[in-house]
Specification:
CATH class: Alpha Beta
Number of helices: 4
Number of domains: 1
Number of strands: 5
Order of helices and strands: EHEHEHEHE
CATH architecture: 3-Layer(aba) Sandwich
Shape: globular
Strand content: 15-25%
CATH superfamily: DsrEFH-like
Helix content: 25-40%
Strand order of the largest sheet: 4-3-2-1-5
């Protein structure tokens, strides 16, 4: 499997998500953590770009970070999967590497 890319910055405050999405390779997946979860909002500024990436790569969001920001799963883009910490560990062990985007 390709790398797991983690993004922890909001698309409103950083270009980390754009940099990440531009460098996705075969078998890669994206995990949005911390303020990166804002990118998964269906009505957000990054929605179109993330939806496009989700057609080719799995996109996940860390549920506890979503909840900590008062965001509901129902507000997410279709196809974005919510995982917990154990899911994060599982993803990290199944992928060839973890690439963090700050």
């Amino acid at each position: 499997m390709g790398p797991l890319h983690t993004v922890n910055k909001s698309p409103f405050a950083s270009t980390a998500l754009e940099s990440c999405l531009a460098r996705l390779t075969e078998g890669a997946a994206v995990l949005l953590i911390e303020d990166g979860v804002y990118a998964a909002l269906a009505a957000g500024a990054a929605a179109d770009r993330l939806a496009e990436a989700a057609n080719r790569h799995p996109v996940y969001v860390l549920g506890p970070d979503l909840a900590a920001r008062g965001l509901a799963e129902a507000s997410l883009l279709d196809g974005v999967r919510v995982i917990d910490y154990l899911g994060f560990v599982d993803l990290a062990t199944r992928h060839s590497a973890v690439q963090s985007w700050f």
